[in-house]
Amino acid sequence: MGDKADVWQGTLALMILKTLESMGALHGYGIARRIEQISGDILSVNYGTLYPALLKLEQEGYVASEWGVSDNNRRAKYYKLTRAGRKQLEKEARDWEQTTAILAKFLSTAEQS
Amino acid sequence: MRPLRAWLLRLGGLFQKQRRDSELADELESHLAMHIEDNLRAGMSAEEARRAALLKLGGLEQTKESYRERGGLPFLETLLQDLRFALRTFRKNPGVTAIAVLTLALGIGANTTIFSWVRSVLLNPLPGSGDPERVVALETLAPNGDWLPTSYLDFRDLRENCKLMESMSVTKPMVLAVGNDSSVEHVWSEAVSGNFFELLQVKPQAGRFFSTAEVDHEQNAHPLVVIAHSFWINHFHGDPGVIGATVRINHFPYTVIGVAPKTFHGSMAGLSFSMWVPATMYGQLSSTGDHTLRDRKWRTFRVLVRLSPGALIEQARAEVQSQANQMALRDADTNEGTSATLLPLWKAHYGIQNSLLGPLSSLMAAAGVLLLIVCANVANLLLARATSRQKEFSVRLALGAPRFRLVRQLLTESLLIALAGSVAGLAFATPLGGSLGDLLPHSSLPTLAQAPIDAGVLFFMIALTSVVALLAGIVPAMHAAKSNVQATLKEGGRAGGSSARSVRLLPWFVTSEMALATVALIVAGLFVKSFHHASEIHPGFDPDHVAIAQLSLGAANYDAEQANSFCVRLREKLEGAPGVAAVSYTDYVPLNIAAGSWEDLQVQGYVASPSENMKIYRTLAAPGYFGLMKIPLLEGRDFNARDDMKAPPVMIVNQEFVRRFIPSGTAIGRRVQGWGKWFTIVGVASDSKIYRLTEAPMPYFYVPIRQIYRPEMGLVFFVRTSGTMDGAIATLRREVQAVDPTVPLLEAASLNDGISLSLFTQRISASLLSVLGSVALFLAALGLYGVMAYSVAQRTNEIGLRMALGAQRSDISRVVLGQGARLAGIGVVAGAAMAFAITRLLSSLLFGVSASDPLTFVGVAVLLTMVAIAACFIPAWRAMHVDPMVALRYE
Prior knowledge:
The structure holds 2 protein chains of 2 kinds. In chain A, 59% of the residues lie in helices and 18% in strands.
């Protein structure tokens, strides 16, 4: 597990929002698994940071939570995207794309020189 | 928006910690269960699945902790925790806490009170006005550098020619007789130019104010008056119909056009005026107006200036100076050698702030010293307590508390103590603020005897509290954080143990407290001594048993002849009254706060150098003045009834006049020119004090009041009584009323009351500094007592051992007293050295005592040492009576 990259600070929130957008309501464990799967198991989500991050998103009003029952009939807390969360996701995704585009350009020119 | 929402939720989270924690536990449990299930599905054994899941989840407790931090506001939670803990420790040590709080209450209360005085007198001299920072005072400078009021014509010229001023206004305090004959009331008012209210940016409470265009052009044509809010309430019950009403002022009908707002009291700090009339009405109201407003020599007005936006006072001052210098050339007959300048209001020479500037600054400094002592004292107490809590700190550190948490805990405690102290301080600063009036000279002036505790003062106090908490708390806190876990825990039960470093810090605090108290007491001592010296000066006349009455003939519209016959009649009546030994009158009361008048003189046989100031101050006196005042006439004769308008002008000069201008030959018969006439000197009077008791002798002269007097000048009747002072004052009032009830009697009092004004700054400096000095002494003694008592308690064991080994009780007490005396001695010596440096700066405020007066220094040193030994006595006594058996079992 040591060779896996930890999720960068700040990007975890974006990943959570994106996951909730594509999957609908999901519990914490599901979110973590989903992020790891999407990354092709390159990323490892530290659960210790996952729950505080979810709480923060909830306090900011981007996600809402309620207790529900999982596929295996287990009680679990489900998180889902709110309208504000959807907007925030769009905004953050745009910002992120912009940042990566700039960085990509910068790196390619740096290689050429 | 979002951060605020999150913050509010977190704040709310503080109160539902339990629920949140259990919910998280549930959530994590379900997470774990799902993970284990997945692992089982992937083919792990039950145990392996559980282990892997737990591993992946990481430290359960850490997760919970960081979740908790996010859920609430850890900063606030810690603060609440610290506060709760602080309160608990306070409850455990109520004595120490009470002393600390009371000490702080003293320091903070004294500082807040004095600051509220400073604020209302110096910092905020024009309450109720808008943008007062741009308002400054314009003052005329006499050729000898004296500060003078300004003449109306000079004001008009300056107003026209100065460009860096947005507006400029005159004001002149005056007493007006308001009402009809049956009930006349004397009301303090200001005669102001039309733009006065506009300049001060005051908006009327009701009605309107005057304007320059309306009232400044024609004399005696606009009988309008603006009344103060208090006058409106007291005399008109706040009736809005007052606008347009007529009031009789000095018998003339005036129309009320407006009411000033409640917060506005006029243009002099600390005084409260009730009416404002146009300055162009000054003539009608004082009967001097035709002179006052048309003669440059009548310098009677204060001038207020509002600087143009962007103009600096320095630039404006340069402009005023150059204009005034041009006027000095253009109107050389009246203005030669004079100039003008601008001053910030708090430096202006007219008004209460001028007399209070010196005392208030020294008081503020003394209060600062007191506060330092208070800080040292509280730091002392906290440090002593921190030392005995050393073990608690060590245990906390050993259990993994970060050091900064300990610092924070202790700072929270000192902040809490400071807060309690400031609340207690406020409780006694509030009534003290109202006692500002007691500081002001006792006079007929309408003092605004209040220094309200407003937002500015509260802000000051909060800032002060934080500084105090930091100052008093930082050393003990840093100290606690440094405690050595190993060593302290190894010392076993011994609370703190005297090996702790903090014990070595305690003496430092005590020593510096002693030093500060020494400084405070030496300064107070010097002021007391200088006040004594000043009050023992003989004024050169005998003020005892003399009553004076100040009259305004101007208000009665007398001409010169009527004025004279009034004076003669009043004199006759008074001489016939019982209990009256002598009667005379002049135009001036010596040692009053008012400035006198001068005349340009030319002395026969004396050639003045071109730069020499020949403007000599004078009094117009009626016959019998010298006898009544017991001013010895050294040569020649007194004025008599034959020295009238038809007789050749005569003059009496003082000794200093003779010394300066008539160094050889006899003074009697010498001729002196003034007022365009030649006077013959007929007498030489001995020197007496004119303005201040502390002044050096200056040339002075007297002329018969009949030969010069005009009704617009002041008039003061003097009565020497063989009966009681109250009787004499009553006689004065009665006889003035009997001769002409329309003549306003401005003030009737004993001459001594008037003179006390000239010493009042010294008196309040001396008395208030003594109070602050005594408090400082008391606190320093308390500090020393605390440290010694603590040290004895810490050494009980050692003392018991010594006694068990045969030490005598006297040996023990000598050790304790010696230690205390050493601490105090070092402090006193250091304080004396500091005082030696500081008092030098005060030498201009002292009189008749050198800044390094050895008697004061030695006296204070002895006093402090004695108090210090007394403070050590109880601990020493306790040490002496330590029972070796008990002591050895101690702890």
